[in-house]
Design goal:
The protein is an alpha+beta fold. It contains three helices and five strands, in the order E-H-E-H-E-E-E-H. A five-stranded mixed sheet has the order 2-1-5-3-4.
Length: 91
């Protein structure tokens, strides 16, 4: 069964995908990592940002394994590297 999520892109990631946001249908049980893989397939240049990317679900930072739910807002960020390191320590 499919569900809809809203996906936001910030900074360089917005430039890579060519838009700031879109709505996307994903399978029930999909995770942040699945969503990323789907975009990386469509936009291979995302791979060069992979190591420094952060994600949020409904405005809370989450890890790659976070499960998505109907109506979620997911954001892809590429913040400064120091911030990435600090936030990953807290996840």
């Amino acid at each position: 069964m499919a569900m809809q999520v809203r996906v936001l892109f910030f900074g360089a990631l917005k430039d890579v995908v060519g838009r700031a946001e879109e709505r996307l249908q994903v399978e029930t049980g999909s995770r942040i990592g699945d969503l990323y893989a789907r975009y990386a397939e469509r936009y291979p240049a995302l791979e060069q940002h992979r190591a420094s990317m952060l994600f949020s679900r409904n405005r809370e930072f989450v890890n790659w394994g976070q499960t998505l739910e109907e109506g979620d807002e997911v954001a892809f960020y590429r913040p400064p590297l120091l911030l990435v390191a600090l936030l990953r320590l807290s996840l």
